[in-house]
């Protein structure tokens, strides 16, 4: 998948997440887990580490919302994961950091917001919001809106691309 920068640049920044299979099992580790069965959610806190295939999400706290299809515990389906606190998502050499992230399993969309940074072998970028559509293989990386009140931010997406080195052999 190509992550496309929002705005007029329309440049490619990263590849890889489009090949992710969101139907694979989800494994987790955390310092504490609280199952809130009536609300159909699981609260994971403290050094949360969630993996699905080769996609990994780390955070201080996550809420996993699920549906119990058919009424028995064999048909539990994750609907979404909401992560907060030093969120890091990685797959291969693609790394994304932000304040919060949501992985919507139904829509197959990952959204990262708040001081978002992206880094990989092809370049790096900074912005306020990154939306990755796993089905369409398209992502939007946008800067801070003018209503944030943070005058130190330009409101723009910034970054750099890695340039292939030329061969010096004649």
UniProtKB/TrEMBL annotation:
<feature type="domain" description="Organic solvent tolerance-like N-terminal">
    <location>
        <begin position="30"/>
        <end position="136"/>
    </location>
</feature>
<feature type="region of interest" description="Disordered">
    <location>
        <begin position="143"/>
        <end position="170"/>
    </location>
</feature>
<keyword id="KW-0732">Signal</keyword>
<dbReference type="GO" id="GO:0009279">
    <property type="term" value="C:cell outer membrane"/>
</dbReference>
<dbReference type="Pfam" id="PF03968">
    <property type="entry name" value="LptD_N"/>
</dbReference>
<protein>
    <submittedName>
        <fullName>Lipopolysaccharide export system protein LptA</fullName>
    </submittedName>
</protein>
<dbReference type="GO" id="GO:0015920">
    <property type="term" value="P:lipopolysaccharide transport"/>
</dbReference>
<dbReference type="GO" id="GO:0017089">
    <property type="term" value="F:glycolipid transfer activity"/>
</dbReference>
<dbReference type="InterPro" id="IPR005653">
    <property type="entry name" value="OstA-like_N"/>
</dbReference>
<dbReference type="GO" id="GO:0030288">
    <property type="term" value="C:outer membrane-bounded periplasmic space"/>
</dbReference>
<dbReference type="InterPro" id="IPR052037">
    <property type="entry name" value="LPS_export_LptA"/>
</dbReference>
